[in-house]
Write a structure and sequence with these properties.
One of its GO terms (cellular component) is efflux pump complex. There is one protein chain. By secondary structure, the chain is an alpha+beta fold. The chain is built from 7 helices and 20 strands. Among the domains are: about 90 residues, Beta Barrel (Elongation Factor Tu (Ef-tu), domain 3); about 70 residues, OB fold (Dihydrolipoamide Acetyltransferase, E2P); about 100 residues; about 25 residues, no CATH class. A hairpin with a 2-residue loop joins strand 13 and strand 14. The chain has a 6-stranded antiparallel β-barrel with strand order 3-12-15-14-13-16. The chain has a 4-stranded antiparallel beta sheet with strand order 4-11-9-6, with no helix packed on it. The longest helix is centred in the first third of the chain and has 50 residues. Helix 1 packs antiparallel against helix 2 and helix 5 runs antiparallel to helix 6.
Length: about 475
């Protein structure tokens, strides 16, 4: 049976999906597709459901407040006082390094300190003697001058007595200076003693925090060397009620990740269980692995039942944005519409320029006002300077701001910010193909949410095939 040219001949083929998807054979001339042969179209019903855009990654679980306990000295471990999973208190003894050598160093430093202290006391006596000698020489000089005035001694004898007095003064001053040197030596010996005592104390490895032992890497009798790197002996965790995941995010996805975004993850130990967390840190240092750049994102998660353990591999889905109970179409429908939807734009003319605002659903009055403000040549055509084009865009923006409603301005803002995308959809309505402009929201790997218009119950074209 023949139909009018404006109608589309439809052949329905039942599928195994109980009518959810249908096939139609159409004459392409009826909707201005530039095809010369009959084509088969696949359609689907609009569904209601959740759409969630996620970034997937893997990472390793670590305790939030874990501390690596190391040895600051080289020596032999003679005793181990803590084992795996032991609960320890801050300051509790975990292990001991053989203290014999360090105790000898303390004794040696103490002996040097005691000697320098005794030298100081002896020098004080020397100073006192030099002082008395000087005072005696001063008195003798005074008497000698009286005798010289009375012609009782010669001038040479007086000169010798004056010289002896000056030498006595120099001896006194030199003794005082020597005391300062001995005090400095004593201070150095005191510091050496303190350092030796610190080293002796460090032979006792103690817990820096209260918690429990999650790892021990040393055995009694083992020798540790701290010449270059601090040997790691124990790893302590304050508790496991809070865990962190170090996730590696590809550079193509890192721009989507924001602080406090929700995260769902699973571990191989509990494959059927979903754990929740949130993004707590985005590190800016790049990680280069054979030319592949990624960034570390820290995810915080509660672990109230201690089921998560350090070192477990987590498979994460970071929730970028989501919408619940939304009308949605498959991404195949979006791709099909973008490829096959007819274009009614008049390139280079005013129709082409006005079509840029088709998504705003302008009223006739708004279109009239916009046409009045339009330049003779549309922005971007040849023969116009950059300054003129910029002025035209600014003028058009002012006109738009004055004629748009609050809802239209909000839609334009959301489109500009990437919150909403506008594009076509192909629908079959009463046996005819129609192209509608839709506002798309959140998209994932399978679906795109449709914010407007209401397309519930419509048959959406998802595929076009040549017969």
């Amino acid at each position: 049976m023949k139909t009018k040219r404006s109608k589309i001949a439809v052949t329905v083929a039942a599928l195994a999906t109980a009518g959810a998807i249908s096939f139609y054979t159409l004459s392409p001339d009826s909707f201005n597709l530039e095809r010369s042969s009959t084509q088969t179209f696949r359609t689907e019903q609009v569904t209601i459901g959740n759409v969630s855009n996620r970034v997937s990654a893997t990472g390793s679980l670590t305790a939030v407040n874990d501390v690596v306990v190391g040895a600051q000295l080289s020596g032999q471990i003679i005793k181990i006082h803590a084992d795996f999973n032991d609960t320890v208190e801050e300051g509790q003894l975990l292990a001991e390094i053989d203290p014999e050598y360090f105790a000898a160093k303390v004794a040696q430093a103490q002996a040097l300190r005691d000697k320098s202290t005794a030298d100081i006391e002896a020098q004080k006596l020397v100073i006192e003697r030099a002082k008395l000698n000087y005072q005696r020489s001063v008195r003798e000089l005074s008497r000698s001058r009286t005798l010289y005035n009375n012609k009782s001694i010669s001038e040479d004898a007086l000169d010798e007595i004056e010289t002896n007095s000056k030498l006595s003064k120099l001896d006194w001053e030199q003794s005082a200076s020597q005391l300062a040197i001995l005090k400095a030596t004593n201070d150095a010996n005191e510091a050496s003693l303190k350092q030796a005592q610190i080293d002796l104390d460090r032979t006792r490895i103690v817990a820096p925090i209260s918690g429990f032992v999650i790892n021990r890497t040393v055995e009694a009798g083992q020798t540790v060397a701290s010449s270059y790197n601090t040997p790691e002996l124990f790893t302590l965790a304050k508790d496991l009620s809070e865990m962190e995941i170090e996730a590696f995010i590809d550079e193509s996805d890192i721009g989507l990740v924001k602080l406090d975004q929700g995260v769902q993850f699973s571990v191989d130990a509990y494959p059927e269980r979903q754990f929740n967390g949130k993004v707590s840190q985005i590190r800016k240092a790049p990680q280069d692995n054979s030319g592949v750049i990624s960034y570390i994102v820290i995810v915080s998660a509660r672990n109230a039942d201690n089921s998560l353990l350090p070192g477990m591999t987590a498979n994460l889905d970071i929730s970028i944005e989501s919408i619940r109970d939304a009308q949605r179409v498959s991404n195949a429908a979006v791709r099909a519409a973008s490829r096959y939807a007819p274009s009614n734009q008049q390139k280079g003319g005013r129709g082409d320029f006005l079509s840029r605002f088709e998504h705003l659903n302008l009223t006739n009055d708004q279109k009239t006002e916009l046409k009045k403000a339009m330049p003779t040549a549309s922005p971007g055509q040849g023969g116009q300077s950059n300054t003129a084009m910029r002025q035209q865009r600014q003028q058009m923006q002012k006109v738009l701001s004055s004629i748009l409603t609050a809802e239209q301005r909000e839609l334009q803002r959301r489109i500009r910010n990437g919150e909403v995308k506008v594009g076509p959809l192909l629908v079959l309505k009463n046996g005819e193909l129609e192209v509608i402009q839709a506002e798309f929201g959140v998209s994932d790997d399978s679906y795109s949410s449709v914010l407007s218009p209401d397309i519930s119950g419509m048959q959406i074209v998802t595929q076009v095939r040549d017969n």
